[in-house]
From TrEMBL:
Transmembrane segments: 38-57, 69-85, 90-108
Protein name, per record: VanZ-like domain-containing protein
Keyword Coiled coil: yes
Keywords in alphabetical order: Coiled coil, Membrane, Transmembrane, Transmembrane helix
Entry-linked InterPro entries: VanZ-like (IPR006976)
Presence of the UniProt keyword Transmembrane helix in the record: yes
């Protein structure tokens, strides 16, 4: 019994260790995925700031409104990695990046650039478009990165049935081990002799007197003085 309990406990401990290892690996991968989004967005934000605060001659922009497209694309690229790696960042990342774009527009006049409301509008539009696009593609990109293909209802039911069958087989194996240990420890004794005298001894004891003599038949004298046998 003790050995069977030890085996069951060891199997349970191995299952718990395996589950804990897989869980830790999953947490580490998720953490790295989220950190990569932060690092990438930070690098793009620095590059955008450098380009936005660098003095550009007017003749360098040959197409009217092309700088607005640059603003839009730059801030779309800033917000996209933040949201696509963790959609919960929407609530603080979107306002923060919009404020970042406004701060750049306020600093631009000090470096020979002009601050324009249209540029700020392009920044805000790029932020909102990038956040919406990242939110739409979040689940698909997450599955492709972590190799998580969506399962249909039938596949999900089949997987659950396989898991239940595996659990049932494991429980049956453990039950067989316990029963084998229990049955192996029961001693196999012969038929026990009944306690007490045998029927022949009982009959002999009833036929004998207190000292082993035959019982004496006494006559009873009635009121009439007669003798009855």
């Amino acid at each position: 019994m003790g050995e069977s309990n030890t085996a069951v406990k060891e199997q349970a401990a191995r299952r718990e260790t395996s589950a804990a290892t897989l869980g830790a690996l999953k947490i580490h991968q998720t953490w790295m995925w989220r950190k990569s989004g932060l690092v990438l967005s930070f690098m793009i934000a620095l590059a955008t700031a450098v380009l936005s605060l660098t003095a550009i001659p007017p003749e360098a922009i040959s197409i009217e409104g092309l700088d607005k497209a640059y603003h839009f694309a730059g801030f779309l690229l800033i917000i996209f990695p933040l949201i696509v790696t963790d959609s919960r960042r929407w609530y603080w990342a979107v306002p923060l990046v919009i404020l970042y774009g406004g701060a750049i527009e306020l600093i631009q006049p000090t470096v020979g650039r002009s601050a324009e409301w249209l540029d700020f509008g392009a920044n805000v539009t790029g932020v909102l478009a990038g956040a919406a696009l990242a939110e739409i593609l979040h689940d698909r990109i997450h599955r492709s990165v972590f190799d998580e293909s969506p399962l249909s209802a039938q596949e999900q039911a089949a997987r659950e049935a396989e898991q239940m069958e595996a659990v049932r087989r494991e429980l049956m194996d453990e039950l067989r081990v316990v029963l084998r240990e229990e049955l192996g420890g029961v001693p196999h004794a012969g038929p026990e002799r009944p306690v007490g005298p045998s029927p022949a001894e009982d009959a002999a004891a009833q036929g004998a007197g207190p000292e082993g003599q035959a019982p004496v038949r006494l006559s009873v004298v009635g009121k009439s003085g007669g003798r009855s046998g």
